[in-house]
Design goal:
GO terms for molecular function: oxidoreductase activity. This is NAD(P)/FAD-dependent oxidoreductase. InterPro entries: FAD-bd_OxRdtase, FAD/NAD-bd_sf, FAD/NAD-binding_dom, FAD/NAD-linked_Rdtase_dimer_sf, Rubredoxin_C. The protein folds into 3 domains: 4-112 and 243-305, FAD/NAD(P)-binding domain (3-Layer(bba) Sandwich), CATH 3.50.50; 126-239, 3-Layer(bba) Sandwich (FAD/NAD(P)-binding domain), CATH 3.50.50; 319-398, Enolase-like, domain 1 (2-Layer Sandwich). Helix content is 22%, strand content 31%. It contains 9 helices and 27 strands. The chain has helices at 13-25, 48-52, 66-71, 132-142, 155-166, 187-199, 248-252, 291-305, 376-385; strands spanning 4-9, 30-36, 42-43, 62-64, 75-78, 82-86, 91-94, 99-101, 104-107, 111-113, 126-128, 147-151, 170-175, 203-206, 210-215, 221-226, 231-233, 236-239, 243-245, 261-263, 274-276, 281-283, 319-324, 327-333, 342-348, 353-360, 363-370. The strands form 8 sheets. Strands 5-2-1-9-21 form a 5-stranded parallel beta sheet. Strands 11-18-12-13-14 form a 5-stranded parallel beta sheet, covered by helices on one side. Helix 1 (13-25) runs parallel beside helix 8. The radius of gyration is 23 Å and the shape is globular.
Amino acid sequence: MKKLKLVVVGNGMAGVRTIEELLKLAPEAYDITVFGAEPYANYNRILLSPVLAGEQGIKDIMLNDVDWYAQHGITLHLGKKVARIDRVRRIVVTEDGIEAAYDRLLLATGSQPFMLPVPGRQLDGVLSYRDIGDTNAMIEAASRYTDAVVIGGGLLGLEAANGLKLRGMRVTVVHLPQWLMERQLDPVAGGMLRETLEARGLHFALGRNTKALLADDAGRVRAVQFEDGGEIPAQLVVMAVGIRPNTALAEAAGLFCQRGIVVNDTMQTYDPRIYAVGECVNHRGTAYGLVAPLFEMAQVAANHLASFGVKRYRGSVTSTKLKVTGIDLFSAGEFMGGEGAEEILLSDPVSGVYKKLVIKDDKLIGACLVGDTVDGAWYFRLLREGQSIADIRDSLMFGEAA
């Protein structure tokens, strides 16, 4: 049989995981061509933080080196950004004119970092934190400058702040909400995290809104100015204020996009020859930024590309298990509680342990854990399966062993 042509736009974790799954199911089905905008092969974006902190190098975080593509007969184009998709002729064209024909196209274009629309965002020394290039620029800045400001107190911002602190910079985290990681933690847990990080030398400006970034005479950022008139010095500003699905290529090709490339349960777009996976996708109204859902999407897309056609992606119930600079955190479900919900609390600030379980109608609907996350997976299972906890309610706080 003549092989079909599969073109993959995006060489990140979701796109390459789809190829890995496809090679398990139907290794001879396609001639595969991959386009990656970065000059690097497939690496683990989650491990950029240890690279910034000096604990690992670029080689340590590679998932599939260039040899892997060659071994599997995959044509790899690195440092090549796809400029347009011609859906009539079924080809993709890069910015420098390379063309590749496809029978099936997989879009894994990921997401773009959101940059605050404030004056001064174009200055030298103002970065996002998204890829190896950003990480290298931060490492270089840390060797020459003293003061850094990280705008954004979510996971990425805190990891950036920790890495820059370990490289000797004075670091202030600016965050508009009143507590850190407000999407994963409640105010008490966020407060405990802040105290721990302050003890390690990080500074925080919470509830502060950035008005502008100020320049020195050479055109480099020198300070962050707030709406209330205050300012703090910064020769490096890292914006970690969120991501947006990267849909420009799909939109230009006429695919339906709405806060992401809209796909069905088989990961197909409105053009049945074109599939999409990863952070660029909107599935049933949700865009996912965590790794577990992206890998679940990859499995489903591979199953259909292999013509098995039996898997469906029905969305993901997500939990967050993190190690923020050595502090264990876990959250899942509706951990903020709400009307009709009850809370079981255990708080031990001295030992740095906080546990909050949220119950409604004899079911666990949310959990937030700091310091002791050993039972996170068990709580997540109870939550996802929706089973009654009426019989174990009295011992629920003490974990699965109890």
